[in-house]
Amino acid sequence: MIPRSEKPMFYGEMDFYGIAGIPQISTMYYIDSSKWNAWRVRLTDRNIEIIAGTEVIRILLEQIEFIDRPLSHAVANKIQNYTKHGSFLVVDYKQKATIGHGNALFSLVLAGKKEDVSTLKHLLMRLLGLKADPVIGNLQPEEIRLLCLFATGMDSSTVILPLFNNDTALLQKTFNSLKRKDMVDDYASLTSSGMDVVEKIRDSGKIKLGSDIDNKFNELSSNWTFREDIPANTIANKILWKHENSSLSGFIQTEDIWKYLNVGNIGMAELKKLHISGLGLLMHTLDGSTVFLLSHDSSVVLALYGILNKTEDIQMRILFMFFLGFENERNLLGYIGLNDSGFEDHCYQMIQKGILDEKRKSITKKGLDLLYRKLMGDVSVLLEHDRVDRQLGEFSRLDRMKRSSAKKRVMQALQHKHMQMGNF
Fold first, then answer.
1. Domain for residue 416, yes or no?
2. 200 in any annotated domain
3. Which of 85, 148, 235, 409 is the most exposed place for a label (fewest CB within 10 A)?
4. Could you tell me the strand order of the sheet in which 237-243 lies?
């Protein structure tokens, strides 16, 4: 079920040319150009509302099966010729069949400005999750698992088999299915189609998971809740690993986090509000494991999330690295898409902006103020602007760095004053 509030949440309103109620199968070959209409389309967390004059057509999000299914070049060209728009979106949804009993698949096609089509697609994917992707939605869980394992270079059957309950027949069947779907070749190497799927899964950190996957995360978080009676302390963070029926937990210093995380294997990271106060970070690996970080200090969790967020500004990710003491972790540079030279260039720019000090050994007051505004802004959105100070927990690391920076400035001022007096 898609989560609902008492009052529908409004996401956006855009103008499109559209056609609704077309049997899905017919869109593969032909779309009647005479049925296009100019519509005002509204999106809420419950439905798509199509306003056509005095008539309002509603398609519940729960009815939607797939978003952005590709059409043939011939059909796409006809859409573009009639609407004069190069961008369009296909939404497949279930509706009571016009003939017989039960439901049948119908299609809604919307054509409009590129930015409007892109925005609507992004919002729908956030609401519905990866299950609404026309390719991923048709893959079985074991196919997604095997595809992600191959993507990490894990292609040995002796290593993979335990992740398939030692079921040789299931593993072989899954591999054959991926080959038939042109996701992998005979040597377990990903094809371009397979790589596209894995990239979508990796980039889904900003996409809300669909209910089928989200429920598993909720169940996992609930299973870990009772272990919060041994919480992270003021010195170390608590970290939990879980894979199927196996789990492991322990404490870890902030500066050592990356020694225990294979960043290249992290497919998704999600912030979680803890039951009392504070934040946790749930990380989803490509090999099917989950890693949960609980910290006494919410600034650590937010900064770690910022580093893992590939859509975040590159210099902000570097600032997060300095904040957590990861600036010398070279394996992180590859993760954020930089080599040593690129890293040096960005650091030089940050020094010129006054965010890092000239010796690059600490963050300046300006940089710490920027960090605070960024972290508070992110978490304010996460908590829906609801009393951030009450729910967030502590910002201990940031507070310590601010005090240290203030002390350093005072000492520098005193030293400067002393030197001036010595010149008389």
1. no
2. yes
3. 235
4. 246-252, 237-243, 290-294, 279-285, 266-273
